[in-house]
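Standup notes, protein team

Yesterday: finished cleaning the Vibrio scophthalmi LMG 19158 set.
Today: Macrodomain Ori protein structure.
Blockers: none.

Input for Macrodomain Ori protein:
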Amino acid sequence: MSDTEFRHGKKRFYDNTKFPRGFAKSGDFTLAEEEILTLYGDTMFGLETGELSPQNAEEKHFVKVIENPGKAKTKLERIWLKYIQLARGRKRFHTLNGRTKPDASEDYSEDSSLVEED
């Protein structure tokens, strides 16, 4: 990622609460995405929280993307938005049973048309 003006973080970025085994081992990020998050994540987090002020056009655009995610263009911006969604969004829960609770209005009594009369 030498073609970017984005600053490297002062320290490597990790999220031990949501991704305790690392970003790539979570199964949600590729190895390349993990590398980008660990190198630039500290700067992106600082820009998002307002601890850092943007120093170039790329960082200014990143701050705009935080407010309006539809404007994401660069790989850095898309990966950070993916991280935000996975770390702070609702966790999806999949059950093995696809049926929801039965309706109380359904009648499970014998159907009179199926009962043979002698």
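Follow-up from PR in the comments: The radius of gyration is 24 Å.
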